[in-house]
Amino acid sequence: MELTKQDLAAMSAAYKKAEAQHIAEIAVKANGINASSEREVVSVTDNPFVFSIDVDDEAVSNQQQSGRCWMYSCLNWMRHKVEKDLKLPKGQFQLSQNYNFFFDKLEKANLFMKSIIDCADSDINDRRVTFLMQTPQQDGGDFDPIVALVEKYGVMPLNIMPDTAVTKNTAELNAVLNKMLRQDALALRALVHERASEEKLNEARLTFLNEIYRVLAVSMGEPPEKFDFEYRDKDNNYHVDRNLTPLEFYKKYVGIKLEDYVGVMNLPTEQTPYGKLYTIDMTGEIIGSKRYLHYVNVPMDVFKAAAIEQLKAGEPVWFGCDVTQDADFTKGILSCNLYDYEKMFGIKWTMDKGERFVTYQALPTHAMLIAGVDMDADGKPIRWKIENSWGTEAHNKEVGHQGYFIMDDKWFDEYMFEIGVRKEFLPQEYQQVLETEPEVMPYWSPFNPEP
Q1: Which residues carry out catalysis (predicted)?
Q2: What mean pLDDT comes out for the span 52-78?
């Protein structure tokens, strides 16, 4: 299997005959791969920002340098209802991502410690222990985790607990927390090996969590237990509601029945047949919550129909996709026809969606909101309106259409993996699946939002 000089000579000779790639070489070396391969026909002109069903035009938020897209998109979904119900001016209201992020970090630390204790008798090089030690916690998440956080802790307006320098760029915080948790893990493993009592283990866990809480409070501020909600509506009328807890605010001003919403995925692989419920081992960060990470796997036509029905009902749709594929962030276009790598390099792509997933080529990497869809005369979707959480400008360049993107329907088929929708929009056969015992996917699954 050695790569010989003869092999290299043959490759060089073949390239000398590839005249089309010689032309491409000039462009790619000067401009880069994507800029050189982008098709001219895929443009803003060919993808007008107009949709036959359009439910949301709120000003986009900005997650800054953090991995909180799953949280932003879900809170923006809730924010949409608050803005609509209270007739708030566009762009003047958001829910505090910092507030829920605080408890997300604390709950993840608690889950990590429990998992470390559960597998403490395993060798330090055991795959499960290695998985935990590699990334004790991080920013990522999913639909069920943010729902569980809201159900336990509620929500609050952004102005009550705004972002800090740390939450706008979380790399430093994650480095500190992970260093602490790895150290805590060694101490907890030692206690287990000494056959410490459950009381002793719990005492140590709470001591370590107290330190985590302190770091979070210094970095993010301590979450207020009560606050006043003041606002002016579109008619400039003043309103105030005093001394609310975050849960009281959620129940009174958001009021979405979260138990009616479920995670739905489209994962066409041999290992994940349709019509089954799935969860992932070592997830479910809020210990004791009835809400755990789970998805019902459905064919794309069912998946797509559920999203459209929720849009028709006037609600945006939370979703997870692979935004790293075939995307032009400046133009705000997600399109399978965007780049012609095959012609430029003289290669051929042959993997389907399932094959891309199992080889880690395409994974759920980002969460956003579906804010609308454009349908043809036969009721088939053409393109989708997407609300992102990257702000409206980055590196002195506009991001999409004031932060919104256009997703063509083919891209939807190939790179959309999950949505959070009202279960009533699923056919009865899939609603019944939600009552079954889930199959547990391994913690190393590419679908795991907490690697």
Answers
A1: 69, 366, 388
A2: 95
Nearest CA to 246 out of 108, 102, 369 is that of 102
Please report which confidence band the pLDDT of residue 19 belongs to, taking 50, 70 and 90 as the band edges.
confident
Range 37-40, long-range pairs (CB < 8 A, 24+ positions): 37/339, 37/340, 37/341, 37/343, 37/344, 38/328, 38/338, 38/339, 38/340, 39/337, 39/338, 39/339, 39/340
CB 188 within 8 A of CB 120: yes
Contact yes or no for 403/60 (Cβ under 8 A): yes
Structure-token pair, residue 288? 């004791």
Residue 121 lies in a domain: yes
pLDDT score, position 397: 77
* Active site positions, annotated: 69, 366, 388
Spatial distance between the Cα atoms of 268 and 396, rounded to a whole number of angstroms: 39
d(CA 256, CA 250): 8
On whether residue 336 sits in a domain, the answer given is yes
| 99 phi, psi to nearest 5 deg | -60, -55
What pLDDT digit, counting tens, does each position of 224-260 carry? Answer: 999 999 999 999 999 999 999 999 999 999 999 999 9
Contacts of 184 (CB under 8 A, 6+ apart): 113, 116, 208
Q: What is the pLDDT of residues 273-318, one digit of tens each?
A: 999 999 999 888 899 998 989 999 999 999 999 999 999 999 999 9
Dihedral over alpha carbons 259, 362, 429, 439 (to 10 degrees): -80
How distant, in Å, are the alpha carbons of 131, 308, 399 from that of 55?
Answer: 41, 11, 21
Domain count, the chain: 1
**Is the pLDDT assigned to residue 211 strictly greater than 90?**
yes
CATH value at residue 254:
3.90.70.10
Distance CA 263, CA 291 (A): 11
- Of 256, 375, 261, the C-alpha closest to 312 is 375
CA distance readout (Å), 248 to 72, 75, 107, 281, 375: 21, 16, 21, 33, 39
Any domain includes 83: yes
What length does the chain have? 451
Residue 443 to residue 96: CA distance in whole angstroms? 30
Range of the domain at 86: 53-441
Q: Is residue 200 part of a domain?
A: yes
Residue 46, judged by CB atoms within 10 A of its CB (0-12, 13-18, 19+), counts as middle
Does the pLDDT value for residue 44 go beyond 70? no
Dist. CA 336–CA 91, nearest whole Å: 32
Query: What pLDDT does residue 451 have?
Result: 54
Burial class of 436 by CB neighbour count within 10 A (0 to 12, 13 to 18, 19+) = exposed
